[in-house]
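[job 0417] fold request received: Sigma 54-interacting transcriptional regulator
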Amino acid sequence: MNKKIAIIGYGKDAVDTYGKQITALFSNNLSIEKFYIDESEIRKRINADLILVQSYHTLKKVKPYLNLESKIVFANRTISKAGFCKIMNIPKGTHLGLLDESMEMAIEMVCLLYELGIKHIEIAPIYPGIDKNIRGKTLILLGKSTCNTEGAEKIINIGHSLLDISTIIDIGEKLNLLYILQNQNIRMGYKEIVSKNFGLSHIIGQTNRFESELKILLQVLNDGIIGIDPKGRIYTYNEGAEEIIGVNKDNAMGKNIIDLMPDISFEMVLKNIRPIKERLIKIKGYDVVLSAHPLVNSGILYGVVIIIKKFNDIEKKQYRFRAQIIGQGYRAKYKFEDIFGESEIIKKYKEIARRMANSDSSILITGESGTGKELFAQAIHNSSKRREYPFVAVNCAAITESLLESELFGYEEGAFTGARKGGKPGLFELAHKGTLFLDEIGEMPLNLQTKLLRVLQEREVMRIGGSGLIKVDIRIISVTNRNLKDMIDEGKFREDLYYRLSVLPLNLPPLRYRREDIIPLLNDIKDQLNVDFILTKSAEDALTDYNWKGNIRELKNYIEYFASLGIRKIDLKDLPFYSEKSHKNTLDNSEKIIFKKFLSEAHKDMEKYIFLLEELNKGFKNEERMGRRSLYKIARQKNIFLSEQEIRVMLIELEKNLMIKMNRGRGGSVITKFGEKVLNYLKDNVLSEGYHC
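[job 0417] inference complete; emitting C-alpha cells
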C-alpha cells in the first residue's frame, strides 16, 4: 500500500510547488493530500503517514486535527538559482524587506539568504502584523503571497520557495522510502536550486556514483571480479579473476578487456548498456560462467562489473544450499497450478483448499499414501498471507522422540551432552510468521503431543534447558495417512490435540476416485521425466481400471518401469499387474455401464452384496442352489446382520443387474458369468479398500 503524505501551508501555489517536487522524486510511491490555510480554517481530521508543515505557526493551527500516529517534518526551504540571481543583481547597499507568511518564516528566509552568501544588501523580515511598514519600500516576494503588498514602491518576485535536499531525505527516511532516492540522482533533480546543505549535497553526489558498484563488489568478492570503465579499460581485478583467467593483476590493470577476453563481445554492454546474463564459456579448459553488469545512475554508464565463476564451484554451492533449504523445508515450492487434474473431484478439493488458505486456522490433511498431501500443504501456504515467510517442514516419523523434541523446541547451550555451543532455535521459532508443516503427525509420540497441544493453546515455546517463553505466530498444517480417530480409541493419539489440529479437515481423494485424470496424469509425468512411449487401447483401459493403492506415487513408479523396458509401445501384457486371471475379471464397456449403475445404488451395502455373491458362487461350484433361507442362516453364522426380507430385496437388485438368476419355488438363485466377473472385480478393487465381510 502506498504511503500518504499531507502537505499543509499558507497558500495554494506554495503547497502545490512542494507537491510537485515530492512527486518528481518519489513518483507513484506516495499519495499526496494538500491543505491551504489561507482558503479556510481546517476543520476535518487529517489522516496521513507523514505531515509536512511550513512552520510552527502552521502546525499550531492544525494540531487538534492530526492523527497522533502521523510523523511530522518541518519544511526546510530554499530558493531557485533564478531567484538567487535576481537578488544578487540588486544594487549594493540597498535596504529592502522580505515579505513572508509569518514572523517565523520571514526570519528563517532572511537567515537563509545571508547563509547563501547574500551580503551586499540589507534585508529586513516583513510579515503580517508589521506589513504596514512596507509603504515606499522595495520588497522581495516569494511567489504569490497572501500578505498585503499595497503601498510598496517596488516588488522583486524571486518565485516560490522550494524544499531543500535535507527535507526530502527526512521524508524518505521517516517513510522507509530512502531506497527510492538511492536509485535516482537526487543532485541532478536539484540542479535548479541553491542548497544551504553544501556538505550533504557533495556527499550525495559522490555516493550516487559509486554506490551500486560497491554493493555488487561486496556481494561477490569470493568470485572472479573484473571492473572496467566506460571505455573498456580494466581498473579492478581480484585474486579470483587471476586464478580463473591465469593473468596476474599487474599485467591486467589498465588493459582493454578485449585484449584479455577477445572471444567475448562487450560492445552490447558498453554501447547499449545491456547486461550479459550468465553465459557458459571455456577459459584454460575450464567451464566458466560469465556475466557482466553495467553500473548505471540516471542513465549514465560509470563502468561494468564482470563476474566469472567456475561451473564446478557453482554446482557444489547449489547442492549445499538446496540440501539446506529443501532439506529443512524453509520454503514452499508448489502452488495450486502445480496440482494436475481436470476431474470434478480434484477441482472441488483444490477450491476447498484455496478457501482454507485464507484462514489462519490449523489444517489436517488426510488421505492415502501418494495422494499429494504435501503438495496441497505447500500450495495452501503459497496462497496464504504467510507466503512471504518460512514454510518449515518436519517428518514426525523420521527421527527419534528426543531428537524430534530438540528440533521442534530448540535448546539452550549446555542443555544436554552434545548440545551446540550457543544453543539452537527450534522449528517453531524458525516458522515464526509462517507455516509449520508436520508430516506424518500420527507418528508423533504421546509425550510430544502434550507439548504440541500447549504450544497451540498458548502460542509460545520454551527451549530445552531454557527458562524464558518465546512468543510464536505460526500456522500448523498436519498430514497423515492414518486414521487418527481409531488411534484415539486405541489411546495412541490425544483427542484434544486432534480437534486442535483438525479445525479445517481436508481428506484428499485417492486416484481411483478420479479415474478420468489417470491417463492425463500419466502423460504429464512422462513429459516431466522426459520419457517417450505410447499405450495401446487395452493397456490404457487396464490402467484406468486399476486400483492404484499407491496412488500418484505408484503411477510414477509404473511410468519409470515402462521407460526401463526400452520398448516404444506398451501393451496389456507389459503391465506389471497383468495376469490371465485379472484380464478375465476386466469389464468391457457395456458391463461397466451396468456395474457403475449398480455401484451407485448399492454402495452403502457393498459388503452385504459381496457376501451374497460369494455364497452364490460357492453354491454354483458345489452344484447347490441357494435360497433366501439358506443365505439367512449362513449370514447369522458369520455375524452378518441381514433379515430374510433384506436378502429378498438384494437378490432382486442383483437379478435386475444381470448378476444372478432367481428360480421359482425351491429352485433358489444361481450366479451368472457376469455376476462371477463382478464378484472377482469387486474382490480385487473393493475388498482391498477395507470392505471386509
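[job 0417] notes: The first helix runs from residue 12 to 26. The radius of gyration is 40 Å.
[job 0417] exit 0
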